[in-house]
Design a protein that fits this description.
4-stranded antiparallel sheet, two-stranded antiparallel sheet, mainly alpha, binds iron/sulfur cluster, 16 helices
Length: 356
């Protein structure tokens, strides 16, 4: 197969490519020059903000050179946040955006999509061949991907369509279509960006960059909730805040919860000391209960998988926006977070030291 010609548009779309790195070096900028260019800084900030909020990299700058520079600047900013959650999320957003982009080409440009994917795969050192035929016989697949490249990137994919028994395998190659190849490349891209971000700190950053990192850290904290703090050892159901009681009621009666409702309830229960097993039991009555998926989600929220971040429920202000905050009571006026409410209620129920 032939390699595609990498254009300036491609460098802007796939700035993680090795070939793009040399392009970035040729642009000849420094941290100081980035900090002095508000439009680059703004776009770099937007890239990470969009990653935090919805796992994308946002609307690209129309000028490809600016977009490439903003990518480099975004790496500096992501490192400067010193937050593993932000770094992992940004790497995933870059990878997911590239994945969608690789599949954008419709029928007329199928060949172009295939060549682009092939070129990106080669940049990652894949052993990849055309998948139309095996020994002259048509198999109608886009690519043959070497076993080693397939296994490395499909390790976390558990659906039957990824299992080896369901693949066409010949001479060490696994024959797949371009959608699957792009999905495997998403994993490669995520790992590469994560490696680039694996730096503890960059010293003496300009103040403008520090201000942006502070803003992004606050935003991330809003999304993943407050840092876990010391919670009472025993679970006290009578201290649950009204929103959690409403979610428990809904779970019992409707056997269904919205995505944010389920996330809030699960993270709340895990943070007050309920076991993953007990939370799983709660969801067993749900009409859409799927044991493997539910366990995976609970373990993910508990920080036992993925980014190793133990999630906490979102703050009250976010729960209000999403309609999860219900039946507010007096104590809610002095709480900004369901876990704070819970702790306060337990403390207020304790007998005072000097009371009779
Ligand atoms: S104010 Fe906070 S704790 Fe109270 S019901 Fe609303 S979300 Fe829950």
């Amino acid at each position: 197969m032939e390699l595609a010609v990498i254009t300036i548009e491609d460098y802007a779309k796939y700035p993680f490519l090795k070939q793009a790195s040399s392009k970035i070096q040729n642009l000849d900028f420094t941290i100081q020059s980035i900090a002095e260019d508000p439009s680059i800084l703004k776009r770099a900030e937007k890239r990470i903000e969009a990653a935090i909020l919805d796992l994308t990299t946002g609307e690209p700058d129309k000028d490809e050179r600016n977009e490439i520079t903003a990518y480099a600047a975004s790496l500096i900013i992501a490192i400067a946040t010193k937050k593993p959650w932000i770094k992992k999320r940004y790497a995933l957003a870059v990878a997911k955006t590239a994945y969608s982009d690789m599949l954008k080409y419709k029928n007329a440009n199928e060949k172009q999509a295939k060549t682009k994917i092939y070129t990106i795969a080669r940049d990652f050192g894949w052993n990849i061949i055309d998948g139309q035929k095996i020994a002259g016989q048509s198999v109608g697949k886009d690519f043959g991907v070497h076993f080693a490249n397939y296994l490395k990137n499909a390790a976390h994919m558990h659906k039957p369509e990824w299992k080896l028994v369901n693949q066409i395998i010949s001479n060490g190659y696994i024959y797949i279509n371009k959608e699957k190849a792009a999905r495997l490349l998403q994993e490669e891209i995520k790992s590469r960006v994560e490696k680039r971000l694996d730096i503890d700190e960059i010293k003496n950053l300009p103040e403008d960059i520090n201000l942006i990192t502070n803003k992004l850290n606050v935003l991330a904290q809003d999304i993943i909730g407050q840092e876990t703090e010391e919670m009472p050892k025993e679970v006290t159901m009578t201290a649950f805040p009204p929103c959690i009681n409403a979610l428990m009621m809904e779970a019992k009666q409707a056997h269904h919860l919205s995505h944010i409702g389920r996330f809030t309830l699960t993270s709340f229960l895990l943070n007050i000391g309920m076991t993953a097993e007990a939370v799983n039991e709660l969801y067993k009555t749900f009409s859409d209960y799927n044991e493997r998926l539910t366990r995976y989600q609970i373990e993910h929220i508990a920080g036992e998988r993925g980014s190793a971040t133990k999630y906490t429920p979102p703050q009250c202000s976010i729960l209000q926006t999403h309609g999860v905050c219900r039946n507010r009571d007096e104590l809610c006026r002095y709480s900004y977070h369901p876990l704070k409410y819970y702790k306060k209620k337990i403390e207020s129920a304790k007998p005072k030291a000097n009371s009779p």
